[in-house]
Amino acid sequence: MDTLLLLTILVVICALAFDFINGFHDTANAIATSVSTRALSPRKAIILAAVMNFVGALTFTGVAKTITKDIVDPFALDNGSVVILAALIAAIAWNLITWYYGIPSSSSHALIGSIAGAAISAAGFGILNWNGFIKILQALLISPFLALAFGFVMMSLFAVLFRRTNLYKSNKGFRLFQIGTAALQSFTHGTNDAQKAMGIITMALIAANYQTSSDIPMWVRLSAATAMGIGTSIGGWKIIKTVGGKIMKIRPVNGAAADLASALIIFGATTIHLPVSTTHVISSAIMGVGSAQRVKGVKWGVARKIVITWVITLPISAILAGITYQILNLFF
């Protein structure tokens, strides 16, 4: 088999594996609040999330195009298939490490850091598309703060609107409402996160001269959406425990406010074609909701560990990808 074709096939397999892992790694974030408040049973929550992730993944392609061309120009990459394969291996490795320890790390940071690290290892810092790369980093940096603010405002609004409502009745009503917010949360997750694998597969097709435009082929959209949906159906119980209970004690009204706030941020990013970390956004929205209710009610020690993981993910994944590229380059 031709080496370039073999590399492209390996990239496609690894990209779909990344999407699959992303499904069970990040699905936990989308359904953690609804499971922890018992609005949905774990089984029903996962089925709902799998279906809505699949639908969301097929609906948009803007984020995929951003991943394809805004970090590194795929037309300018020499040995591009090896660069992309190294990036995927590093991102998958970091995702599995953080999943094993139950840390809600960012798949987006891992992938973007890995692409940049492998490309720099191959061709130096000049290979990066700095305007696009900085724009993506800004979206990743700003979105958690927006989610924190949105969560705070949403919870404050709910507190005013339902201040005279019987607690039992409001909890029951919000549990029903959470079914809708969990579906919305999973849909927005699919519109943003599944796009990343689509973008990297398209990037590999361009680098291997199998495609000449950044348009996302339908088979890529379908395969990435399917991988995300199947991964979602597996679930991520360790991360559900962290996001759904260790940041703060979540009641139905808190879960609904956090879901709605984070879904708005993620979908807003999707509409302007920017990748964001669903992990960052959802965790930050929960912190904002907790702060609106009672600042001391947020377990800031757990939150600090999550933030530290966010900060180190991009450089560590970049270094891993750079080393992986040098090893793969010996063979290809």
TrEMBL record:
Originating species: Metabacillus litoralis
Q: What is this protein called?
A: Inorganic phosphate transporter
An annotated GO BP: phosphate ion transmembrane transport
Listed GO cellular component terms? membrane
List the InterPro entries hit by this protein, alphabetically: Phos_transporter
Q: What membrane topology does the annotation report for this chain?
A: Multi-pass membrane protein
What does the UniProt keyword field contain? Membrane, Transmembrane, Transmembrane helix, Transport
A Gene Ontology molecular function term for this protein is: phosphate transmembrane transporter activity
> Where, subcellularly, is it found?
Membrane
Q: Which residues cross the membrane?
A: 6-24, 45-63, 83-103, 110-130, 136-162, 219-240, 260-286, 307-328
Domain of life where this protein originates: Bacteria
